[in-house]
């Protein structure tokens, strides 16, 4: 599957704004992969499909989480987290993507995991810093990604956790586990 075919498939699943975001993540992930010596094609593919399940109905995602024996604690947390693991499952099933490294980068793009692979870090950080993002502090993360992927990853996690605390939102335990791993030097 080439880039054009992949983009055409994902476009059907998304609205205009989310598609534009996806192209931004793709371009950013490619640049990070080139800079840090990761497989550019894998980064491109994972980025293109990272939000594949973003607009699936809540009930469908819930059913998949239960049927596929995904972590039950997902259901106790906000449904905006669900599209990441559900997306990894659906791109395998519906699109036929088999590359485990790519699937895991999609699965962990929202909350990470301890000891992330470089590909996972690239998709996670690219999702946060793509040119269409305007979070407070995003410019600092963009600058940081020029020098250190791990420092950029730390800033993404810090900002996300601080943002959630500021809004009195619960934090998904895996987000905390990822943060701990990053500050303990495990990435
Ligand atoms: O799908 P995107 O909007 O491109 O971004 P994303 O997949 O990184 O995040 C989806 C949403 O999940 C976003 O609103 C931030 C939120 N989020 C990320 N980590 C956590 C979280 N929400 C909660 N409640 N807890 C988390 O740990
Ligand atoms: Fe997402
Ligand atoms: Fe993200
Ligand atoms: Fe995204």
TrEMBL record:
The yes or no answer to whether the keyword Metal-binding is present is yes
Alphabetically, the GO molecular function entries are: bis(5'-nucleosyl)-tetraphosphatase (symmetrical) activity; metal ion binding; nucleotide binding
The reply to whether Repeat figures as a keyword in the UniProt entry is no
UniProt keyword annotations, A-Z: Hydrolase, Iron, Metal-binding, Nucleotide-binding
E.C. number: 3.6.1.41
At the top of the EC hierarchy, this enzyme's class is: hydrolase
Q: Which reaction does it catalyse?
A: P(1),P(4)-bis(5'-adenosyl) tetraphosphate + H2O = 2 ADP + 2 H(+)
Name the PROSITE patterns on file. Answer: HD
Pfam families xrefs: HD
Which PANTHER family does this entry report, sorted A to Z? BIS(5'-NUCLEOSYL)-TETRAPHOSPHATASE, SYMMETRICAL, SLR1885 PROTEIN
Q: What is this protein called?
A: bis(5'-nucleosyl)-tetraphosphatase (symmetrical)
